[in-house]
What does this fold into?
Amino acid sequence: MKSSKKTEPAKPVNRGRHERNCTVCAHPQRAEIEQRFIAWESPAVLKWEFKLADRSSIYRHAHAFGLFEKRKRNVRAALEKIIERVGEVDITAAAVVSAIQAYAKINAQGQWVDRTEHVNLNELFDRMSKEELEAYAANGELPGWFTQTVSATVGDGEEDESD
It folds into this structure.
């Protein structure tokens, strides 16, 4: 049976009230708690380690300060934990390969980037003028348009690691 309640947008949090009542805000290790939450540390572990009343206090704090968005952009940290523990837990090779593939497709901003563009280097060399080909043959110097075309396919400002 489905509920007839409509989901309402979350009300903005009164920061002052939150800070007065929040055990995470008052905690001397608040910055570490926040950083570890953003790095995908389990709220249950954080609750226990920092002696907080319950993990819901961490979730309330995270909502009040927009930590979930930061955490989402940091999904690479969660994947790193999976990849690092490959030798310690029973998982399938397919799961490891999937985690590595996902990790490779997430850029530093936490965005999924499908790198599907291909460059036909022969076509680019065919476009080079006689002078550009001679300069390349003499000293290995490629024209600016050539390197800009090739680097444009790397994606989102990331450097090509194939060198």
Remarks:
- Residues 117 and 152 are 9 Å apart (CA to CA).
- Residues 153-163 have pLDDT under 50 and may be disordered.
